[in-house]
Structure formats: structure tokens, C-alpha cells
User: Which sequence fits this backbone?
């Protein structure tokens, strides 16, 4: 599963055991819920992402799982904002009201949220020190 921001691909290795909700391990790392409200802004965004995945399953059935369902890669669309300035946005391309579309929307929202909460993990003795910018 790939997450896309405007600048870079999401690097899951940075978040292998991050916080209470960004833990990306086990047989369903994208859809298994975490264990708390979140230790910081990034961990809260990870919780929101997993809740989005949970809603997709509730709406489209138990097999609507990010690890198993593929969707069409989002495309870039250029729009004019209220000030008449062009902005680029990623948009999901699957049909509305489908599992694929819902999962794409979850991933896309997480990519946008992740871009707002930039994280740098700095190695220190005994683990990592996280810095949030």
C-alpha cells in the first residue's frame, strides 16, 4: 500500500512501532485498530485513518480491507481556488459508493494529514526520539 503526498511517498518503515496507533505490523497493519487515543498529533492522525478503514468495512462489508483490496491510483487534478490561483489536488478515480473508493479516500486523507504533521525520528540510545514539526 502506498500513500502519496505532494512531495514524497509514504515510508512505512519510519512508523513500524510508532505511538499507539501508527503501529504497522501484524497480518493487517493498515486496518487493525491501535490501543488508545494517540500520543501526539501524528498518532491521532493514524487513529483517524484506522477509524476511516473501519467505517469502510462497516459500509461495504467485512472484506473491504485495505490489505486485500486494490483501487485505481489517484490522479492529479488542477483546480482554481477562490482567489483564482491554480492548486493541484489528488482525486480518487473509482466509482463513488464502492469499497475501492472509500479505501482510496481514507488513504488520500491520511496522506494529506501526514504531510501537515511532519515527523523526524532521531536515533538515540535505546530507541528513537521523535521530533514533530
Assistant:
Amino acid at each position: 500500500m502506498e500513500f502519496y503526498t505532494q512531495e514524497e511517498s509514504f515510508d512505512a518503515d519510519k512508523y513500524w512501532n510508532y505511538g499507539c496507533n501508527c503501529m504497522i505490523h501484524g497480518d493487517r497493519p493498515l486496518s487493525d485498530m491501535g490501543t488508545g487515543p494517540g500520543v501526539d498529533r501524528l498518532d491521532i492522525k493514524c487513529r483517524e485513518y484506522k477509524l476511516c478503514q473501519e467505517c469502510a468495512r462497516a459500509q461495504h462489508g467485512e472484506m473491504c480491507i485495505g490489505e486485500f483490496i486494490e483501487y485505481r491510483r489517484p490522479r492529479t487534478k488542477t483546480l482554481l481556488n477562490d482567489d483564482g490561483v491554480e492548486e493541484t489536488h489528488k482525486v480518487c478515480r473509482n466509482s463513488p459508493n464502492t469499497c475501492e473508493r472509500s479505501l482510496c479516500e481514507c488513504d488520500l486523507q491520511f496522506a494529506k494529514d501526514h504531510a501537515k504533521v511532519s515527523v523526524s525520528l532521531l536515533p538515540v540510545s535505546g530507541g528513537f526520539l521523535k521530533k514533530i514539526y
Observations:
- Strands lie at 75-80, 86-91, 119-124, 127-132.
- The mean pLDDT is 79.
